[in-house]
Amino acid sequence: MNVRTRAPYLTTLTTAIALALTGSVTSPAHAVESGSVIANDTVWTDTDGNPILAQGGNVLKVGPTYYWVGQKLVKGQPKAVNLYSSTDLENWTSEGPILSQSGTTGPLATGLWLGRPQLLRHPNGTFILAVEINNGPGGRNQMLFATSPTVGGTYTPTSQDSVKVNGNTIGDHSVFVDGSNAYLVYVGDTGSGINQTINIARLNTDWAAVAAEAPIWSTSNSNHNEAPAIVKVDGRYHLFASGMDWWDATPTSYRTSTAMTAAGWNQGSWKPVVTRPGSTNSFGTQFEQIIPLVGSQGTSYLYNGDRYSQFYAGDGNAPGGIGRNAWYPLTFEAGTPVLNGYTDVDVNTAAGTATGNRVANGRFDQDAAGLMPHWQVKDGSSAETVDSNTALGGNHHRQLSVYSGYVSQEVLLPDGTYELSFDYRSSGRQQNAYVEVKNHGSATPARVYLNTYQYQWAPKKITFTVTSGKADLGIWADAGGWLNIDNVAVWPTT
Questions:
Q1: Is it the case that residue 214 has pLDDT exceeding 90?
Q2: For the chain, which has fewer Cβ within 10 Å, the N-terminal or C-terminal residue?
């Protein structure tokens, strides 16, 4: 995937014609260092430089290697299940498609829906792939299982056609392994409509089909959820799910149980996942999976989110923003899951830690409509995000343009010393223009002035010490010119 250094620096930019009003020209071009951070709000690429195409899938760890399966979803092309491998969750190598559509008949016929691939490994070493196919009644989804003796081998379907689950078609699904047991977690249809129930059904002994028994738990989908998936944390089971809004980004909900039984799950209720900073749509994503990071310093968790703006924008509800996937640290605070909207995530798989750049939407690319999620614009200010007019992978990067007024974000930070870095351009026609850090424990803001002419993008840094558990990042410009800001990051100095 795309990775970036903690302190990005600029390469020389080609001189372009300035747009005097907005200053909207070529976006900053950064050097990339392998193995640095997961860069959210960017188009991720594999180690060969090709865009990663892996929607609606899951990540499975086998020994020291993580395997990521996901749907290849490109308009006008047959669908496939792609496989990627990594040892650090930051650099992914394409292992090619492991299940592909072709022909006009059968469950893998071109043109059918082939989605939500889920990979699991049986204790006997067999790899199982569970996917949904929409060749059921009325074009609804049924399940197809396929197996392979090796993770990157040829996956052979275990049936001639996709099959219903407990007599019904289904919506989204995932798989969950708990010791020697494996489960299908799915949204079920009923005679009264689609997506009517949330269910947990045991898989059979070889994990290649749903067991011929009733689900261990089934409940009304009154909370209108999709994409359900379970993770076990400190002996408690957490069931997460997205909202239901077609392709659009949604809030994430969860409920818990102390046992994989109906009695256990019935004692819980749906609650919204806390987001930091506050987000009404999971930072522009749909929930897919929680990835455990088990290491020498304990266990951390990554939220695996999908973003469909690259595929279906303009064809109904779809989020804006750059990037097909976004992964964020998920912490548990007194048992409550908290989704942290870091722009960059630094993963140490050996230690089992996930830290990062705690600025949210630091690239101003989380929404393509000129909005600024997670940034506050002071009343009376003239500020917006603008298109850079430079395409990358068919997508346009955005940047902040401040003509007058103040834009800010509060960032919660453990006490310590930090470096704020950002890229800027300035018309130089303001009486005052600056970026500052304040309310970090000092009465005096740490500030750098930017009211001299700077046409090409240039980097700036501010070092500051936090003693108050937080810092306010502020961007100010007087009327009379433009100030462009991009790639805002805060990292510890050590």
A1: yes
A2: C
User: What is the DSSP annotation of 2-51?
Assistant: -B--SS--BPPPPP----TTT---SPP-B---TTS-EETTS--B-TTSPB
Which among 151, 120, 146, 152 has a CA at the least distance from the CA of 131? 146
Domain that holds residue 462: 376-492
Nearest to 176 by CA among 136, 225, 146, 216: 216
Measured CA to CA, the distance from residue 365 to residue 370 in angstroms comes to: 9
CB-based contact 260:178 (threshold 8 Å):
yes
* Residue 438: CATH number of its domain: 2.60.120.260
Whether residue 191 sits in one domain with residue 101: yes
If asked whether residues 482 and 345 sit together in one domain, one would say no
Do 205 and 74 belong to one domain? Answer: yes
Is the distance from CB of 46 to CB of 92 less than 8 angstroms?
yes
Q: Name the helix (H) or strand (E) containing 238.
A: strand 236-243
Q: Is 417 in contact with 493 (CB distance < 8 Å)?
A: yes
Helices (H), 261-353: 262-266, 309-312
Give the model's confidence band at 23: pLDDT under 50 very low, under 70 low, under 90 confident, else very high.
very low
Domains contained in the chain, number: 2
429's CB contacts (< 8 A; 6+ apart) are 480, 481
Of the candidates 416, 412, 294, the residue with the CA atom closest to the CA atom of residue 353: 294
CATH classification at residue 59: 2.115.10.20
Q: Residue 290 falls within a domain, yes or no? A: yes
Cα-based distances in Å from 10 to 17, 90, 486? 19, 22, 12
Mean pLDDT of 259-284: 96
Question: Kind and range of the H or E element at 227?
Answer: strand 225-233
For the stretch 182-198, pLDDT in tens is: 999 999 999 999 999 99
User: If 0-12 CB within 10 Å is exposed, 13-18 middle and 19+ buried, where does residue 136 land?
Assistant: buried
Helix, strand, or coil (residue 147)? strand
Q: 264 by DSSP, 3-state: which?
A: helix
What pLDDT is attached to residue 21? 33
